[in-house]
Amino acid sequence: MDVVLQRVVGAAMAGSSLYEVVLETSEEFKQWLEKEVGMTATELGGEPYFRQTDIVMNPTSGEPALPAGIQYQSPQEIFGDANGGSLFIKGDGESMAAHYSDVNQGELADAWLMSALAMVARYGKAASIFTGHGDDGVVVQLHKLNKDPRMFGTWDSPFEQSVTYALPTKDGKLCYTYSDEAGELWPAMAEKAVAAAYHGTAGNEKNGYDVLLEGNAAMGMAMLLGGTPFTVKLNKVTDAGNQSQLLFRAWKKLLRQGCTVIVYFENDANGLEKSRPYTVFSLQKIDGALGPTFLVLFRSPRGKQAQDCAAGTGGVWNGKWSDCDTDGWAANSVAKAQCDWNGRKDDGTFWMAFEDIVANLGDRYTVFIPSDPELRKINLTDHTSLGLAAASSKLEGQLNASFAQLMANNGLGENVNKFATFAIDALQQVGQVASAANQIQGQAESVKEQAEDTAAHAQSIVGKIPGAADMLGKCVVM
């Protein structure tokens, strides 16, 4: 490798020693990346680096270790329900049961994993990472890192981690990640599976919830879905407006290809929290009389507990274009319609203009490229579409029915597990149709944008040639 950017001890940059992350780049990596996403370093806005790490992921048995004062309890004990809750529950306003709004950070400082889980749901894949469930618990598919340097930090070795239904509690209540729907278990079960398999460095046998204090959101997505995380170190620019447009184009092209963009702000400002992972959920270009406005829809890993419009840091932006800026939205009906803004939402999402992003961003952003070709077909610029499982609510309901029956009747475990496998396969087939539609939509938008860019470029050239505009006008008249 021809360049080493830096060595970071602890992916959360907290000065810990569980594992090392080395960001590296090479001409081979940049060529691979250009082939994979069709973007050069210039188009990305800076130098791309892949992540080399000595993290170990292995399936384990037994319960993940808990910090002092935390204890395991069954879902029946936690929720006072004989059936023990449900794996998935479709809440009011959710397009499907396994929705990103289900992922809300609890007392554990594992924001990186919360962001990763929310994006798994954003892709519509939350149901399908659960590959089975039996009398005692569930099975979650995770991925190991391929440490061959020619693989550029890709996580591509799937394995299954089994965990029991017992979940961490404090004073009888769930204390770590929780759903906004009481009794919905999938976020907590997925968090537990990662706590069981995530070991830090080679030779370190420690796993458990304390280990989840360190991580990186793009890396977490690779653990859950399989794929390649990388970092872009931004070029220094003097014109913030130009950088806003450059980043908008870069992020839009990445999102259209099913890649996730994650940012870490360097400032605690207007509700933002420094060094926490914010995932990009959508992009919108709003045309106006004074020129275009570029907006981004972010989600905070705090989710439901993010404090909208509160003084100080609450997890979500409360400046211009935020949910707090009701007067600004009311004055711009085009933006309101285009962004589908209908008032404040208690789900950790917020809109933010690129000039404010650039002012608070720092010197880098991170990206996750899924290995699954079906995920690469999803156009993530559309915040009204939720990936492969947008049409899967009925199947998720069937999975829930099998889960509830299993909890009540242990003897049906084998048959229910077979049905769950069948239902998940069917869900994936439905998803293929949805992803094809998303791909066509993305291609149409890309052609439209290219045409607009070509017209603008031609107009700028004409403007630089004396008399060209008049000549062009005469040609049109003739």
Automatic annotation (TrEMBL):
GO biological process entries: proteolysis
Task: Pinpoint the Calpain catalytic domain residues.
Answer: 44-361
Source species of the chain: Eutreptiella gymnastica
Q: Give the record's keywords alphabetically.
A: Hydrolase, Protease, Thiol protease
According to the UniProt entry, the coiled-coil residues are: none
- SMART domains from the UniProt entry: CysPc (SM00230)
**Protein name in UniProt:** Calpain catalytic domain-containing protein
User: Do you know which Gene3D superfamilies this protein is assigned to?
Assistant: Cysteine proteinases (3.90.70.10)
Family affiliation: Belongs to the peptidase C2 family.
Q: Which PANTHER family match?
A: CALPAIN, CALPAIN-5
The molecular function GO annotations come to:
calcium-dependent cysteine-type endopeptidase activity
